[in-house]
Amino acid sequence: MTQDELKQRVGQAAADYVNATVAPGAVIGVGTGSTANCFIDALAGSKDRYRAAVSSSLATTARLEARGFKVLELNEVEVLPIYVDGADEIDPHGAMIKGGGGALTREKIVASVAEVFVCIADASKRVEVLGEFALPVEVVPMARVAIGRRMLALGGVPVLRVRPDGSPFVTDNGNQILDVKGLRIHDPRALEAQVNGWPGVVTVGLFASRGADLCLLGTDTGIERIDYASH
Ligand code: 5RP
Fold first, then answer.
1. Total domains present in the chain
2. Which of 27, 77, 158, 204 has a CA positioned 20 to 30 A from the CA of residue 167?
3. Catalytic annotation on 107?
């Protein structure tokens, strides 16, 4: 099965899970990326079951609205029973690297409010130790070089994310992203706290202090459900 087929399957499994566990009339949190897009498409047929969605990026907002979902600002919402999003890597404890699509800050904000975080991923995203995928760090542009030096001191190799035309990639929040290669992240909670404490860092793409509660993993043999509360 191709990676795209696995993503579609897991998107459908996530839609089934949300329809089975979330009360009608709820507002749901929706992540960003190709797997999250599969989830949006799979959930579109049940959109009237939900009051609205809270989105983690401008791209997701556009996709949700194109499929008829109402999108609310997080500031307008009191309770978010669930947040469904992809990941670039997920470890055996539900800690993740996210931000390959550049939406890490809004993703982390929405995830922090949600009662349940469901990670949806194809099997290639499962790792023992985080760090093979370059760690995204959203930075205020004037701090880019200073943060890069700190990352070098930790043994990482920071690379400024650029667009196809070579200009710096700009996040939905007007910032830039350093992709840090070469890290083996054995203590993601500690690294998340450390990097988030550096002036100029908006968000590090480590989701460990608020990791996934549940992962729906698309494999060649079907959907594997991993519940981290039991780990
Ligand atoms: C976007 C993300 C995505 O969830 C992550 O990059 C996975 O993307 P995809 O589902 O396309 O593989 O964190 O910022």
1. 2
2. 204
3. yes
